[in-house]
Amino acid sequence: MIEVVSRERCISCDKCIEVCPTNVFDRGPDGIPVLARHSDCQTCFMCEAYCPVDALFVAPQSHPLPPHSELLDEERLIGEGTIGSYREQIGWGRGRTPGALRAIGPALPRPGVPRPRPASDDSITS
After folding, report:
1. Which pTM was predicted?
2. How far apart, in whole angstroms, are the C-alpha atoms of residue 89 and residue 49?
3. What is the pLDDT of residue 87?
4. Distance between CA atoms of residues 41 and 33, nearest Å
5. Which residues, in sequence order, are bridge partners of residue 34?
6. What is the 3-state secondary structure of 56-111?
7. Chain-centroid distance, C-alpha 15
8. What are the pLDDT digits (tens) for 65-85?
9. 33/10 Cα distance (integer angstroms)
10. Are strands 25-27 and 33-35 parallel, antiparallel or unpaired?
11. How far apart are CA 99 and CA 52, in angstroms?
């Protein structure tokens, strides 16, 4: 759930307001987004992903954090490199490696390279 909007980092670009599928944010009088409908957050991370200056932190919990949670401490989040870390992990932003290039999983077929055949298992009977 969205928990932190850093006033110090925010550049008032409104990207978080535009991409939020549940309209959680309102533009504040000073241009900084405010959490107007916090409980509507779906924890989709879209706002954090699209923020060009890593000014947002979405906690992985799908419910509001308790008032004294360490995950609400902006200075701590910045010091740990947690604020904006989702955007970094998916590789969005200048100088970052796209997440798809770091993904691990089964090898994908490449043109001109024969695909290995699956091993047969003679112990399976129909």
Report:
1. 0.73
2. 10
3. 86
4. 14
5. 26
6. EEECCCCCCCCCCCHHHCHHHHHHHCCCCHHHHHCCCCCCCCCHHHHCCCCCCCCC
7. 14
8. 998 999 999 999 999 989 988
9. 9
10. antiparallel
11. 16
Q: Which two structure tokens, joined as six digits, stand for 45?
A: 């991370």
Sequence letter at residue 120 = S
Please tell me the total number of residues recorded for the chain in this structure: 126
Q: What is the pLDDT of residues 52-69, one digit of tens each?
A: 999 999 999 888 899 899
Is-contact 99 87, C-beta < 8 A? no
Rounded CA-CA distance 122/120 in Å is 6
The answer, yes or no, to whether residue 121 has pLDDT greater than 60, is no
- Counting beta carbons within 10 angstroms of the beta carbon of residue 19, is it exposed (0 to 12), middle (13 to 18) or buried (19 or more)? middle
Name the token pair of 108.
């994908």
